[in-house]
Amino acid sequence: MAIAHERYLRYYLQFVQQHKDDDSAIESEYAQLQRVGEILSTSLTLDDPTMREQWILDYINALDHFLERRGLWSENVRWAERGLAAAQALGREVLVGRFLHDIGWCYRHLGQPQTALKYLTQALTVRQQAGPRAGEATTLNNIGIVHDDLGQRSRALEFLQQALAIRQEVGDKTGEAITRHNLAATYFSLGRWAEAETEYKAALILSQSVGDLVSEAGTLNNLGELAVAQGKVTEAAPYYQAALEKFMALGDRMHQATVLNNLGLLMSQRGQVEQAVQQFETALTLIRQSGGLVTEAVILNNLGTVYEWLGQFQRALAYFEQALSMHRAVGDDAGAGTALGNLGGVYYRMEEWSRAIEIFEEALALLQPGGDRARIATLLNNLAAAHYALGQVDVALSYVEQAVDTHRELGDREGEATVLNNLAALAYAANDLEKARDCLLQSLAISEDIQDVRSCITNLNNLAVVYRAMDDAEFATACHKRAQVLRQRLDVPEEPVL
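The structure corresponding to this sequence follows.
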């Protein structure tokens, strides 16, 4: 039996090494390669006691890029755990650091940021002692990304700046470009547009200087996203087109699909719905050819969103259900939570509020163990809206108060202002006018501080309604006049209130 196993292992190791860049070939033998993993996880009787460990390491080196490209993160964890055990048995500390890092990074993609941080922190300790410095910088960089995922922006910046310092110290321009790109993404999340643009452009120059076309194209794509976030829609399309051309030149279908997905989102914002659907469908075709299941699920989610906007709720539900199945298939809890939230949103639009609540609660239960506070806050707010629709004002108040607290914990001032406005609406519905007024004043103060003029207009209009209900005509008139001045400055129409 041992001899048969050895022949089997040798055959498939040679196969996967020969085809490591040929996803379709590996896919055709994937069931056999899973069997390889099972054999290597058992106690083999071999003449050389270290042969098993070396086989594990060789298989990982041949398979890891395939597993990453396919988004097979759960399977990737299993292989990395085998690799960790092998490295520990062989006393190879550098590899111990690598596999601790890889396990953590996989958990990040599986929507389990706390577990990711546990492994990445262990990897950092090992790499600071055993090296290499490049690995230490990579781990610091990725710890920063996970903190950003958790909404812990200050912590993210701390780790990314440490990674940047090491990469500059060792002259790693490719790594420096990656870290500057991630710094830009964190500044983006904080709404610090100028700093985000500075870092993205610095990353772009570095990528161009070392001929890293993939990073160059990725940064162009992100500059397009930044332009969209700032409302500079006309600037976004050229960035996306430049990124798309570079990915096409590289033959990179997976990233072509990502850019086409962004173009679809851009067209959706412009109201060009048919063109948006065309971009999403093209992206879907490309991603199915390249096998990126997580990206495919994202595109399906966006198609669902477009059909929801069009009021075609059954088509929207079908796309969201497909996305949910894919996220579950790869063990992506964060993605599954997003798809469930979208499903709940459609049932809410269909006025099936009890069904929406069931789905929102399922999504919440899925996301809470991973600690994704930003998505949790959104779900809490959605639960509040659904309970309010059922006339359960007290329950709705409880949920929206939790949402406010969560946004505060995250330091998400824009989200806090929005949910405070929602809390004011619920308090008004419950005839608690003082609470409604206080929430709106808090929301207005935040909106003024972050210079969100549209939110200021909404808050002032709502304050006018509340003050009128409190028989304070003077303050009601003053708020209404301030809102009119701001509206004329922005040239926006009247909005519905409370």
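The domain at 292-391 is CATH 1.25.40.10 (Serine Threonine Protein Phosphatase 5, Tetratricopeptide repeat).
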